Amino acid sequence: MIPTKHSRILDFCKIRCLDSIITYTILVAFLAQFPIRGAAQDFTRAEIGVATSVLNRNRLIPVSDTGIGGRFTYNLTPSLALESEFGSYFTNLDQHGVQDGGRASVFLIGVKAGIRRNRYGLFFKARPGIMSYGDVLTSAANFGSLETTRKTHAALDVGAAAEFYPSDRVVLRLDVGRLLVRYGDSTAVTFPDGIRIRDIGRIVGPLHIEAGVAYRLGSLRSDREISPSPSRFTTGIQYSLFTSERGFFEVVRDESGVGGWFTWNFSKHFAVDSSATYFPRQIHIADIQQGGRMFQALAGVRGGIRRARFGVFGKLRPGIQLYTATEGNAITFIPSPFTDFALDTGGIIEVYTSSKTMLRFDAGNTNIYYRSRNIVLPAGASRVPGFTNNTIQLTVGFGWRF
After folding, report:
1. What are 128-179's pLDDT values in tens digits?
2. Of 158, 171, 188, 371, which is most buried by a Cβ count within 10 Å?
3. Nearest residue to 22 via CA among 158, 136, 149, 170
């Protein structure tokens, strides 16, 4: 397992710096609304547009993909929208693997929320969807055949969008974020005697940059939104779906967990946010840094906007990821717990169902930094290097405001 991860150590600082920059860009963007609270915002219900798209270090063998696509946005309010996007990439068409190959296509649908003024808008976006490849090798291709098939993977696009309005009808837009793609396990080779070799899955997070233009459809309208004072505290229960590489064979697993969160709103736009989640499934094959069950605890800051019925926030929450059974002694083989560093970046959407209750939705990338560790071997002690993994974490919860 360890040799396959050495290259990720070099990417750790790049990933962390990028995610932090994206998150803090969102927070700073929200601050821009302070001097002009209550200003009217011009918009239309529908927008249609085109965009160029670049995925840096995409696919399992990292390459850059460039393409073009279309986008449709439906604005529920000036600060909240539903949008869908389709993109097709015209690079690396001659690359073929058992997980990706040929033309890449992306379809995304989700939410965009933030602030809008008459000349600009700044938004956070979270859009689940799929990444599909048109020419992926089948196992028969390993014996001289060129047989290919289409293969589709789950994806999550998380990031920020800046819009500029040079006229009443034209929208110029720049998006920066990460497109997290879940490559599941796959059969790499099937031998004539029926024996199969599996190709392990992985979660990759290429940098996703888009630049485009859109046209506003329908009648132009103006609306004035207010930002009400929040409840001082919120707390609730939550369900979390955590997708990561688990165990010695790096199998990509979807883990279900339960827990809760607590938020202290110390201002109208900023808060201290924390959560704890327990994942009960037992992984019986322990390795050096992970195994057994998982426990996650996170605490950090979030910043964003709040309206009468909803709020949207960017988050940056460091914490820990505890594994209950890991292998640190190859002589006794007695499993022991091990704790790693975690950093949760992404977004939060809150829906206020009443004056005292709320729904909460989280989406993002909880990176796990697996620490280096000394292990006991029959020949003596040895130090195992650390590495980092991308994950996809989606959470839904019900809470109370007081």
Report:
1. 999 999 998 876 555 556 688 899 999 999 999 999 999 999 999 999 999 9
2. 158
3. 158
Provide φ and ψ at 14, rounded to 5°.
-60, -45
CATH architecture, domain 39-223: Beta Barrel (2.40)
CATH 2.40.160.20 in the chain is located at: 39-223, 233-401
Show the tokens assigned to 343.
Answer: 């950093």
Angle at 125 between CA 124 and CA 127, to 5 degrees: 165
Question: Where does residue 226 rank: exposed (0-12), middle (13-18), buried (19+ CB within 10 A)?
Answer: exposed
What is the 3 state secondary structure string of 129-172? EEEEEEEEECHHHHHCCCCEEEEEEEEEEEEEEEEECCCCCEEE
Question: Which tens digit of pLDDT belongs to each residue from 337-358?
Answer: 999 999 999 989 999 999 999 9
Per-residue model confidence (pLDDT) at position 288: 84
* 260-277: average pLDDT: 96
Q: Which two tokens stand for residue 259?
A: 């827990």
Compute φ and ψ for 19, nearest 5 degrees: -60, -40
The pLDDT value given to residue 115: 86
H or E stretch including 11? helix 6-31
Strands 336-351 and 120-137: unpaired
The label of the residue with tokens 């989406």 reads: 363
The answer to whether 287 touches 247, Cβ cutoff 8 Å, is yes
Torsion sign (Cα): 370, 371, 376, 378: positive
Task: For residue 58, give the amino acid letter.
Answer: N
Please report, as a single letter, which amino acid is at residue 373: R
DSSP string for 31-73: HTTGGGTT--EEE-SEEEEEEEEEEEEETTTTEEEEEEEEEEE
- Measured distance CA(343)–CA(387) in Å, rounded: 14
The count of other CB atoms within 10 Å of the CB of residue 351 is 12
**Structure tokens, 157:** 């696009």
**Which amino acid belongs to residue 301?**
V
Q: Which region, left, alpha or beta, applies to residue 290 given φ > 0 means left and ψ of -120 to 50 means alpha? A: beta
Q: Return the SS3 of 79.
A: coil
Q: What is the mean pLDDT of residues 227-235?
A: 91
